[in-house]
Amino acid sequence: MDLGTGLGLGLAALGRPAYINGGRAADLGSDRSVDALRRRTATVLDAAYAGGVRYFDAARSYGRAEEFLAGWLASRPDVDDVAIGSKWGYTYVGEWRADAPVHEVKDHSVAAYRRQVAETRSLLGDRLSAYLIHSVTPESPALDDSSLLRELAQLRSQSVRIGLSTSGPRQAETVRRALGLSVDGEPLFTVVQSTWNVLETSAGPALAEAAAAGRTVVVKEALANGRLTAGEAGPAVTEAARRAGAPVDEWALAVALAQPWAARVLTGAVTVEQIGRNLRATTLGLPPDAAADLAEAPERYWTERASRAWA
């Protein structure tokens, strides 16, 4: 299925009580109960859909995100024009506790895939458009596991696009490796989801190669988990946004949207007001090189990301 272009909504920050995005205390308040986040998710999905967003992204490790999304779809029988992506490879183990010592556990084995694809299918059924291996790095065994790759190809034969998300300072290496993998003579991975933002641009050339090869590129963490918002942005980012005449978050999202190889750019919005700001970013029309001099060394960026607290 065509995943379309433009803004998409990711549910990482809505489907569980804790995440590494900044500003959650102000955005979500103290009520992080299942019912409260279920209602909030539906409200944000409504606002995104009303604003023209037609791609929604979940994962097995996003707490109850798939469940919340499935419930919203069931309550909106007229919504038949959206693409749904989800991911497997992490298991949520936080037990709905914001202070859990561990929130998710990574496992890229065939056994984990079989369990999680069944769980995803039980919730999203044939609404699932794309299924991605979650957070592949060069160290992951997933791209070397022929049994796993063949099972993913079986899912592909059921009209589900197969993809992967990437993380870490060597994203470009992972993307290029995935581009070369075929099963039964057909490229296996046709969706690539990677972190790209004005602070972490290292995957850009590889993502351009993926787009040129006909893959759909989805950008995640365009606001760097809150570092590219007014509350956390540094002086250089703040000044660049000021020169463009836009708030920091709208400017940073607009830069990601301007990349010619990016089909979808995900927002992690958790409020209706944030959806409105995100939608305004789609109208700024910035050049792709609007922030060419702001990138950090990838190792520095990912070290900082790893240090962010779950809240």
Question: What is shown here, in short?
Answer:
The chain is α/β, with parallel strands linked by helices and 311 residues long. The chain is built from 11 helices and 12 strands. The strands form 3 sheets. The protein has an 8-stranded parallel β-barrel with strand order 1-2-3-6-7-10-11-12, surrounded by 6 helices. A two-stranded antiparallel ribbon has the order 4-5. Strands 8-9 form a two-stranded antiparallel sheet.
Mind explaining what this structure looks like?
Pfam families: Aldo_ket_red (PF00248). Residues 41-296 form the NADP-dependent oxidoreductase domain. InterPro entries: AKR2_Oxidoreductase (IPR053135), NAD(P)_OxRdtase_dom_sf (IPR036812), NADP_OxRdtase_dom (IPR023210). It comes from Cryptosporangium phraense. The protein is of the alpha/beta class and 311 residues long. An eight-stranded parallel beta barrel has the order 1-2-3-6-7-10-11-12, surrounded by six helices. It has helices at residues 24-28, 34-50, 65-75, 110-124, 146-156, 171-179, 204-212, 235-244, 248-257, 272-281, 298-306; strands spanning 6-10, 55-57, 83-88, 90-92, 104-106, 128-136, 161-166, 182-183, 186-187, 191-195, 216-220, 264-267. α8 packs across α9 (248-257).
Mean pLDDT figure: 97
Enumerate the spans where pLDDT stays under 50 for 5 or more consecutive residues. Answer: none
Biggest sheet: strands, sense, closure?
A: 8 strands, parallel, barrel
CATH superfamily: NADP-dependent oxidoreductase domain
What is the percentage of strand-forming residues?
15-25%
Radius of gyration over all CA atoms, rounded:
18 Å
* Oligomeric state of the chains present here: single chain
- Count of distinct strands: 12
Order of helices and strands: EHHEHEEEHEHEHEEEHEHHEHH
What fraction, in percent, of the residue positions are helical? Answer: 25-40%
Q: From the 3D coordinates, which CATH architecture would you assign?
A: Alpha-Beta Barrel
Q: What's the total helix number?
A: 11
Determine the structural class based on helices, strands and strand pairing. alpha/beta
What name is given to the CATH topology?
A: TIM Barrel
Shape: globular
Strand order of the largest sheet: 1-2-3-6-7-10-11-12
InterPro entries: AKR2_Oxidoreductase, NAD(P)_OxRdtase_dom_sf, NADP_OxRdtase_dom
Domain NADP-dependent oxidoreductase: 41-296
Protein name: Aldo/keto reductase
